[in-house]
UniProtKB/TrEMBL annotation:
GO terms for biological process: snRNA 3'-end processing. Belongs to the Integrator subunit 7 family. Pfam families: INTS7_C_plants, INTS7_N. GO terms for cellular component: integrator complex. Residues 155-604 form the Integrator complex subunit 7 N-terminal domain. This is Integrator complex subunit 7. Residues 1041-1213 form the Integrator complex subunit 7-like C-terminal domain.
């Protein structure tokens, strides 16, 4: 039951929730303080109130709707029913904010008489203290936002630690064990905290009353039994940071090292090891005592082994580590105990990593333990230690030949286990990678014995040792500079060819028919071998054809396994899918090979090695797969589109060839129409999605249109309808690209009505199929734009939150705006072309025609500006979805670059044409904005064209009076990475840049005509780019975004923020990441945020305030691109050292707009805190919204944009208080 009070202040209400039927018992009531009555949400009863509750440290904002007839006059309680109760997102409370709650819960648990309750309460503190130890200390912002008094967290942390110490001193053995377990868990993460430069909860600076803590625990050591003493010593080790300078505790630890009881000695060894890592003088004394312990005949072996492990921790300084290493070496040489020697080898190897000059000596020392006289346990330990040394990349061994011979001797020993052979191979691989390529020729003869190892591994084709041996041989041939020498050493015509053949033979030896229990292992083995093959292709691209020949043999083998009647060549109509379940494993392998082929072709394209021979090889192997009688629909489509995809093989086939993509597309469409009735909907959907990703829009349209008629779910139907409309839109554009039957390239060229000169005729694409001045051409573009808008409208109608279909709606919106500008550009160019023709023919132009002529120029300039902005927005889209696959990123980069090149071609011509005198002018003030736009596009294109085209940029640089430093990339995320499937975009870029350079050589009378020709021909070429949809488009899961919560001194809830006119507003902020998956590979190092406010962001009375907008699409805000650009520059300047990023406030503005930058260190919950001040002293009275944007910089220094998931808050500028 709810009771609502309305006080005298109009916007203040109180809601009491009672567990009883009547409010008689106030002890069982929970009070909520409500703030600022608001407009009711959609669907609320007329006259109802929309109310936001105040947040607490553990309770987020909640929005309630109360009917108006249930609210009485002031101070009169009334029972109300809640129409709706919507929880809004809120900050996660920090450990400091929950410290008081945890302290009370611990106290209640310790005082409980229920059996097991004290131990349970203590163990509940383990994850809490561990999380608290990883969090940074609470600063001003989190304390203010959670209502904490500065230093309050330290008080409650100290109270918790003292309560645990009291429980340890006064509890039984089970209680003491639980307390030790809690602190051991925190201690385990101390090294990680050091690497992050963080201060843990148990650091000396954060434990205020550590002397009292030690006093209470020491009493147990003084009066307790042997087990209690051991547990006390373990606690001293966990508290090493504030124990290291306490003389009494140090004496206790040293004295316990010489105890007669093994239990006490081992506990003291643990404590000594913790102190040795951080205290030089303690470690120096400990080394001597450890030597005495390990050298004594009266000490048991377990104690000696524990002491050997502690010796590796004596590394607080170089001198201490050196002394420990010499001591350990002496002990090993004088010991014959195998277990002790094994423990010491590990410790010495760890110390050698600290003592870099001793690593080579340690390698030689470990080689002594690889001879045949040593036991397998010792040899395996020596191999593991060698791998440890070389894995860290710090080992530079002078005698690599001796080491390699030693490793081969181990592998060739009779009776050696496969595990030890694998370990020896791992070491050999690390040794190979540590040798510089320039010095590798010295060691070549030692690796000849690797061939024998590979031959032996053929008995175990599915075992990882065989794959590693081939990998070593592949790395050897890829790293060796002198290829002739390596061929002579290995007695073969070509070692890379030999490696390729070995991989092929090894794949064919994989046990494919042994059962599903080994399927995962075989898939991993195949993937590893294909990865090695890619390495060989990258280093030897001339062998691409040979690689495809060997892959063909592998595919033939797999097809033979999958089909018992492989000799019968199945026709397209006779394809059968009944064996899909039985051959699902073979199909999985074929799909892995397909992904290899895509990557291989990408690599060959990068180095320019794709030719007709490569095409013919892919043709053959794809046909082998497609003709298999047991292949499934999806696998067939993969290989069929790989074979016939237009962007891949453009220019490598002739129009009259039977394998032309147009004819093959018809076959593929017939095939899919046939299998739509014989396969399930999910398989058909995958085929359609893959077709869309490959740019085969006719195929995708057919599939999605058929699925719309079959699906029953409303949500699925909306999704498929959106896909159908978008595919249909791209299909209309694709049809414009198809050549007319019987039309030659020259006839197509002559059909273009734009004024062309010989400079451009030679470069015109032979595939142009329509007249751009034709009305049908314009109508098709318009229809395509309408279809995209329909797709977007369908998705918008099904959206229930800002995160639903965010990428999909954003992408469709961008594509719709691109087509809208394209339609406008075609129309404007047609008008300009007509007027230019009349002017060249000296036809008198009426005044109205002149006005239309000038308006068309303005329209072209506006389109150029819009296209440039769309290019930046495509880049922002690409950077806003963390974890996007590289292919999808490449597709979006191609979309952005295509907008930029079209913007450049149009802006370059328009910015250099005087609309009145039709002459060239340079540096005219009237065109500086258009020239600035041209330069920005030029900057983007420079890093995308080939090196030959870049040479032309020097002419353009001189024209715009710029130096080459200006063309440096602005940001890492904006760098284009265009794949071979989208290389048509790069061709258009090269054409536009070369055409612009040619324009500069024209005289003024010819400039206008040729400038229009450049823009028109670039548009025509642009229209024939086979655009694709990113694969990430079909991922509809929530994306990683951020929420921002702001509070100021006059607000405790983040809703009502106010500042007196003429003053700065001080803000405390919390940035919170949302939807972060646990397995995310991108690791955040720092987040940055920009706040921006302007007098133009004035909020009229009655609009929604604060953070409470149910659906907020940040990408629809026009200012997001500008904010992101400023944030990119801020981050890049910080990387370049041009400014200090740790300064919280850096305001800019002239009184009309202000902004500031902040940085955040995120905790484990993805939250970071900061504070800043905005200078709004010149803002008039009223309400203003703060707009914001944030970004993330990962461990690889990559920039990722974080889309805001809530709108910026609103603050009030009020009249100054009088008196």
């Amino acid at each position: 039951m709810f009771i609502l009070f309305r006080s005298s202040f109009p916007s203040s209400l109180t809601l009491i929730h009672c567990n009883h039927p009547a409010p008689a018992s106030t002890s069982s009531c929970t009070t909520e303080f409500l703030h600022r009555a608001k407009q009711p949400p959609d669907g609320a009863p007329p006259g109802s109130l929309h109310i936001t509750t105040a947040p607490t440290a553990t309770q987020p904002f909640r929005v309630l709707t109360v009917p108006a007839n249930q609210i009485t006059s002031d101070n009169q309680p009334t029972v109300v029913s809640i129409v709706s109760w919507r929880r809004e997102s809120a900050m996660e409370p920090t450990c400091a904010a929950r410290a008081m709650e945890w302290s009370i819960q611990l106290e209640m648990g310790l005082r409980s008489a229920k059996p097991g309750a004290p131990v349970k309460a203590i163990l509940e503190m383990e994850p809490r203290l561990l999380q608290w130890s990883r969090e940074p200390e609470s600063g001003v912002a989190p304390c203010a936002m959670f209502g904490l008094v500065p230093g309050e967290d330290r008080i409650f942390a100290n109270a918790i630690l003292l309560r645990l110490a009291d429980a340890f001193s006064g509890g039984d053995i089970e209680t003491r064990l639980s307390v030790v377990r809690v602190f051991l868990s925190v201690q385990k993460h101390r090294d990680k905290e050091k690497k992050k430069q963080g201060k843990g909860l148990l650091s000396e600076g954060r434990v205020a009353n550590h002397l009292e803590l030690l006093r209470r625990v020491k009493s147990v050591f003084d009066s307790g039994d042997l087990e209690s003493k051991a547990l006390t010593l373990v606690l001293f080790g966990c508290w090493a940071d504030f124990v290291k300078d306490n003389a009494q505790i140090r004496y206790l630890i040293f004295s316990s090292l010489v105890s007669a009881h093994d239990c006490e000695v081992r506990a003291s060894l643990y404590a000594a090891g913790c102190l040795c890592e951080i205290s030089d003088d303690f470690a120096s004394i400990s080394v001597e005592m450890l030597f005495n312990i390990m050298n004594s005949s009266s000490v048991s072996l377990p104690v000696k082994l524990a002491a050997a492990r502690v010796l590796a921790k004596c590394k607080s300084s170089y001198s201490v580590a050196h002394n420990a290493y010499k001591t350990g070496m002496e002990l090993v040489l004088n010991s014959s105990d195998e277990d002790f020697v094994v423990a010491m080898l590990y410790s010495l190897s760890k110390l050698a990593c600290i003592l870099i000059p001793f690593t080579s000596y340690q390698v030689d020392f470990l080689l002594l333990f690889l001879n045949r006289e040593k036991t397998s346990h010792v040899k395996e330990t020596a191999l593991r230690c060698l791998h440890f040394l070389f894995r860290r990349g710090l080992c530079e061994h002078s005698d690599n030949s001796g080491l390699i011979r030693g490793l081969f001797s181990v592998m060739e020993e009779p009776g050696i286990s496969l595990a030890m052979q694998y370990t020896a191979l791992r070491v050999l691989h690390k040794v190979l990678l540590s040798i510089p390529p320039t010095s590798l020729h010295v060691e070549l003869h030692e690796f000849v014995r690797l061939q024998t190892v590979i031959e032996d591994t053929s008995q175990y084709p599915a075992w990882r040792k065989s794959c590693l041996a081939i990998c070593i041989l592949a790395d050897l041939c890829c790293r060796t500079k002198d290829r002739a020498e390596i061929d002579n050493v290995f007695c073969c015509s070509s070692l890379p060819s030999r490696v390729i053949s070995l991989i092929k033979d090894h794949i064919k030896l994989l046990p494919l028919l042994e059962g599903c229990q080994n399927d995962l292992k075989i898939c991993q083995e195949l993937q590893a071998l294909l990865k090695i093959l890619l390495t060989v292709v990258e280093s030897h691209p001339s062998l691409g054809s040979l690689v495809l020949d060997n892959i063909k043999e592998v595919i033939e083998y797999l097809v033979t396994v999958a089909s018992t009647n492989c000799a019968v060549q199945s026709t397209l109509v006779a394809v059968n899918f009944k064996g899909e379940k039985q051959n699902s494993f073979i199909l999985k392998l074929l799909r892995k090979i397909y992904r290899f082929l895509v990557t291989c072709l990408e690599n060959l394209y990068v180095v320019g090695a794709i030719n007709t021979e490569v095409f013919s090889k892919v043709n053959i192997l794809a046909e082998i797969v497609c003709q298999c009688s047991l292949i499934d629909c999806y696998t067939y489509t993969l290989y069929h589109l790989l074979l016939h995809n237009q962007p891949i093989y453009d220019g490598l086939v002739h129009e009259n060839d039977g394998t032309h993509p147009a004819s093959c597309l018809i076959k593929c469409t017939t095939f899919v129409n046939k299998v739509m009735t014989g396969t399930n909907g999910w398989t058909a959907y995958k085929v359609g999605a893959h077709a869309a990703c490959q740019g085969e829009w006719l195929l995708a349209t057919i599939i999605f249109r058929t699925l719309v008629e079959k699906v029953k779910s409303d949500s699925c139907c909306s999704w498929l309808k959106a896909l159908f409309h978008y595919s249909n839109s791209e299909e209309k554009l694709q049809l414009l690209r198809q050549p007319k039957q019987g039309t030659t390239s020259m006839e197509l060229l002559e059909s273009i009505k734009f004024p062309l000169t010989r400079d451009y005729k030679d470069d015109t694409s032979p595939r142009l199929a329509r007249n751009i001045n034709d009305c049908n051409y314009y109508d098709q573009l318009t229809l395509s734009h309408v279809e995209v808008c329909s797709s977007l409208k369908i998705l918008e109608a099904s959206v229930t939150s800002s995160q639903a279909f965010c990428l999909q709606r954003w992408f469709l919106s961008l594509r719709a705006r691109v087509l809208e500008n394209l339609v406008g550009l075609v129309k404007a160019l047609r008008e300009v072309s007509l007027n230019v023709d009349l002017n060249l023919n000296q036809v008198e132009i009426e005044c109205s025609d002149k006005l239309q002529f000038m308006k068309s120029y303005q329209d072209i300039a506006q389109v150029s500006l819009q296209l440039f902005r769309l290019a930046e927005e495509f880049d922002l889209l690409r950077a806003s979805f963390i974890g996007m696959d590289s292919e999808s990123s490449s597709v979006l980069a191609a979309h952005g670059l295509s907008c930029s090149v079209l913007a450049f071609a149009t802006a370059f011509g328009v910015s250099n044409i005087d609309q009145h005198s039709k002459r060239i002018f340079i540096g005219d003030k009237a065109s500086c904005n258009k020239q600035a736009l041209t330069i920005q596009n030029l900057r983007r294109l420079f890093w995308c064209v080939d090196h030959g085209t870049r040479a032309s940029f020097s002419i353009l640089l001189n024209y715009f009076d710029l130096n080459e430093n200006y063309l440096s990339p602005q940001s890492s995320y904006g760098t284009c990475s265009i794949g071979y499937k989208d290389r048509e975009v790069l061709n258009v870029c090269s054409y536009a840049v070369s055409g612009a350079v040619s324009l500069l050589e024209k005289i003024a009378s010819q400039f206008t005509k040729n400038a229009l020709s450049l823009a028109s021909n670039t548009l025509i070429k642009w229209m024939h780019i086979p655009f694709r949809i990113p694969k990430y488009f079909f991922r509809v899961r929530p994306f990683i975004g951020s929420e921002l919560f702001l509070h100021n001194e006059d607000s405790g809830n983040g809703v009502d923020m106010s500042v007196s006119q003429g003053s700065h507003i001080t803000l405390n902020m919390c940035l919170k990441l949302k939807n972060v998956p646990p397995n995310l590979l991108v690791k955040s190092t720092k987040c940055y945020c920009i706040l921006h406010c302007s007098t133009s962001f004035f909020i009229p009375c009655g609009q929604t305030l604060g953070h409470s907008q149910s659906i907020y699409d940040a990408w629809k805000d026009d200012i997001i691109v500008e904010l992101n650009q400023k944030l990119v520059c801020h981050v890049m300047d910080g990387v370049a050292g041009k400014r200090r990023l740790d300064m919280h406030s850096r305001g800019h503005g002239n009184g009309k707009a202000v902004e500031t930058f902040m940085d955040f260190r995120l905790n484990e919950k993805g939250q970071g805190f900061s504070h800043c001040s905005l200078d709004v002293s010149n803002f008039p009275l009223g309400s203003y919204r703060i707009k914001w944007h944030s970004c993330l910089v990962d461990s690889q220094d990559s920039y990722w944009s974080l889309l805001p998931l809530n709108s910026g808050p609103v603050f009030f500028v009020t009249k100054p208080r009088v008196g």
